[in-house]
Amino acid sequence: MDPVSLRRRIGYVIQQIGLFPHMTVKENIGLIPRLEKWKDEDISLRIEELLTLVALPPDLFSSRYPNQLSGGQQQRVGLARALVMDPPLLLMDEPFGALDPLLRMQLQNEFLSIKTKLDKTIVFVTHDIEESFILADRIGVMHAGKMIQIGTPSELLFEPENEIVSKIIGSENKFKAIRFLQAKDVMIPLNNNCLIENEISCKETIEKMISNKIEMCIIKKSNKEIAQVSLIELLNIMELDRSISDFGNKLLIVSPDDTLSSIILLLKTSKDSMAVVMEKEKILGIVRINSVLLNLL
Amino acid sequence: MVAVFTLLDAIIQQLSLVFISLTIGICLAAPLAILSVFYKRISYFVLTTINMAQSIPSFALVAIIVPLVGIGFLPAIAAIVLGSIVPIVKNMYIGLAKTDTALIDTGKGMGLTDLQIMRHIRLPLAYPAIFAGLKFSAIIANGIAVLTAIIGSGGLGRIIFEGLASFNINKTLSGAIPAILIALSLDLIFSLAEKKLKSKAGY
């Protein structure tokens, strides 16, 4: 395959940003479209669209030279330039490596919001494992030119392929990961046997639990109210004919994207030990904070 | 004292010697410099030859031209080109070759061909260096153009040599002063152009 046409279909952002100092922001972004012989008005429309996407007002910035921009603004122009041909793939080679920590954090947050808007595959190279945990959906760990493991943050953290991966990930400092791990990474998927959705009596519930050999079940009273009850609690109840929805300890509800640290905070304030993960009225699983913390140590 | 008409004639001759040689110099230097950027072996050959050429005294160069191509205006041009091409090639090569590698990488990564990188990145970024080379070359050319009067090129050198031969101080000066003024104004004009190119992009 012709490398030039291949490269034109990959958006490329490098650490040094590499804006051409002799060209304005407009000319930098419009270079490839100009070489591809786009119409002038198409080029300027595209440039405006992209500058708006990266939060740089076009009328203020399009005629500036790179040395009239701050580091963060330059990196955003770099991103806009990489996106100009609307490539299906974006290759970012340590784009935030040379920035100061504060700016870096800000750009990472912006990157996350742009990422959802773009809907593109992004290959993001970084040496900063925390950065990869914050930004990535899947992380590939490379060592000595070989891809050792590809997986979600929690897979890498809890099931590292070998010593090298666990060393790179920093498995001995797993607790650091509470800032990045999300509910969906650490939850225990809910077994349907453990879920009671309809109005049945306590007696039926006990029978169901004994026949399924489970100790605890989740009661879905409504979309807003989920409770948990254990077999021992039920056995202590005298009025076995009453509906199960009268019993149970209310559970906290979190969404799959909530971070572990925010869940821990919620649970600490409410003094609960578990939360239920829900998405669009469907119960996905439960987070038992003690077992999660045990895994992190 | 020289007649005004003769002086004007000499100045025009002098300037045409300088600018014709400069134009030929650029035409020869550009392909050499561009090829040198792409091919290491050529760059080695070009740079060695050029460094050697630089060490030849201008007067010897003018002398050597005579047995090779004879005397007159054109042989003089040949001598001036040979003597003044060095800074053009050298600055052009350095300007084109020493572009920030990050910019070249970016250009390549974006999908520019080598020629497009040359045209849109290397060349515009090398303008200041190239103009510095042209300035230097123009000044040297002016210097050699005075010497080539001895092989019949005409120009201000003729007035100077005639003045010297006849112990006519006034005549000598009326050739030398315009030659000096030409050198100074060449320097000024090229410096201004260089500055303008630099400030335009602000790099």
Automatic annotation (TrEMBL), chain A:
Keywords: ATP-binding, Hydrolase, Nucleotide-binding. InterPro entries: ABC_osmolyte_uptake_ATP-bind, ABC_transporter-like_ATP-bd, ABC_transporter-like_CS, CBS_dom_sf, P-loop_NTPase. Its EC number is 3.6.3.19. GO terms for molecular function: ATP binding; ATP hydrolysis activity. Gene3D superfamilies: CBS-domain (3.10.580.10), P-loop containing nucleotide triphosphate hydrolases (3.40.50.300). SUPFAM superfamilies: CBS-domain pair, P-loop containing nucleoside triphosphate hydrolases. This is Trehalose/maltose import ATP-binding protein MalK.
Automatic annotation (TrEMBL), chain B:
The keyword Cytoplasm does not apply. GO terms for biological process: glycine betaine transport; transmembrane transport. The keyword Heme does not apply. One of its GO terms (cellular component) is plasma membrane. CDD domains: TM_PBP2. Belongs to the binding-protein-dependent transport system permease family. This is Glycine betaine transporter membrane protein. The lineage of its organism: Archaea, Methanobacteriati, Methanobacteriota, Stenosarchaea group, Candidatus Methanofastidiosia.
